[in-house]
Amino acid sequence: MAAPGTTESASAPSPEDPLRLDADEADAIAELFNIGMGEPAAALSSMLGEEVHLSVPSFAVSTRARITSEVGDELEGEQPVCAVRGAFTGPFTGEAMLIFPERGTLALVGRLVPVDPTVEAPGETEQDALTEIGNIILNGCLASLSNLIGGELSGAVPGYRAGVPAALIGSATDPVLFVRIDMALAAGDARGHALFLLDIASLDAFRAAIRQALAGL
What we know:
6 helices; 8 strands
C-alpha cells in the first residue's frame, strides 16, 4: 500500500489495464477526500476538545483481502477491533468505515463519556459513542463529497461492529478502489483509519464525478 500522501495505480488508463488512474485523477482523489474530511474532523475536534490529526488521503486499486492484511497489521493483527461502517450509493457506490483498535476506541470515546479504566472492551455506552463519532466523520465526508461532485451520495446509517479485521473489512479478492485516511488524536493514544471502499463497477462514474469536481474547484 502507498504510504499516506502517496498514490498507487496512478498511471494513465489503458485498454490493457482500465483500472489504472492517471496522475490528474490521483491528485483529484486526494484533494476531494482531503476537503471532504476537513469539516467533519474539525467538528469532531470541537466535540472532543482536542485536535484530530489526519493524514493526506492515499488510495490504491486493491482487494478486501489485501486491505485486511495491510490495515490489520497496523490494527494489532488478530486482536479485536471496533468499526462503524455503512454502505453508500449515488453516482458511485461502496462502503465507508471508521475503524480503531479496542484500546484506541476506549481512549477516543473516553473524551466523551466516563470509561472504567479496568474494562478491556467497549460496552454499550462506548459503542454508542463511537457510532456517533462514525456518523460525524463518515456521513460528514459523504455530504461534503456530494457538494463537490454535484451529485448526491446517500449513506446508510452507520452501524457498530467488533471483531478481527478480516471479519470487518472482508476477504474477497475482487478489485476495489480503496481510499484511506489515517486519524489520530493529538495525545497519540487513539489511532485509527477512515476507509472508503468503492466498487470497481462504478469506476467510470467515479471518474466522471472527479472531472465534475475539478471543474468546480
